[in-house]
Structure formats: C-alpha cells, structure tokens
Amino acid sequence: MISGSDFTMRTKRIIMSIPKGKVCTYGLIATVAGSPRGARQVVRVLHTASKKERLPWHRVINSQGKIGLPRGFGYEEQRGRLEEEGVVFKLNGSVDLDRFLWVPSE
Known about the structure:
This protein has a single domain (about 5-95), classed as Arc Repressor Mutant, subunit A. It contains five helices and two strands, in the order αβααβαα. It has a two-stranded parallel sheet. The relative contact order is 0.21. Helix 2 crosses helix 3 (about 40-55). By secondary structure, it is mainly alpha-helical.
C-alpha cells in the first residue's frame, strides 16, 4: 500500500512503474512527482520505503547513468540486479541512458 505525502505517494508509484530492464534517475522521478529539485527527497523515499513496500530501488540511478551507492555498501547488489534484468554497463560503469532510460508518463 502506498502511504505518505502526495509527493511521496507519486514517487513510490513512479518507482513501482519502472519496467524490468529499464532505469530512471532520481531527478526525473522528482520532476514527474512534482518537485523538480527534489532528487534528494527521492533518495529519502527509497531509503525509508524500499524494503517495506518492495520498491524496485535498484532501477533508480543518478543523472550520469551511474549507481549512487558506494562499492561495498550496495553497489554490487544494485549492479547485479540490473545486469540480471539485461541492463548493460559501459566500461566507465555507467548505463547507456539513451538505451535503458525509462521516462514516466505520469
């Protein structure tokens, strides 16, 4: 069940909508959820609700197409989950956003 403020609810709904094999950025989610400067709020939503509400947190990356988590603190798990879904990483560790970015229509 989705709970929280309107922004939080929209954010969760958008994250739940990201299809397997695609990614979305914190900033794009924030913009579509109604707070163009709210990328850090998206991080907070992911941190507080991912496990409880089974959000596909691993599909959310930064605007450079990179995983924001440090190595040894979730990076490997996130990358592994994305690769299992068919997301390919470039040599520099980023995802080709032209190929894998999902743009919400909400």
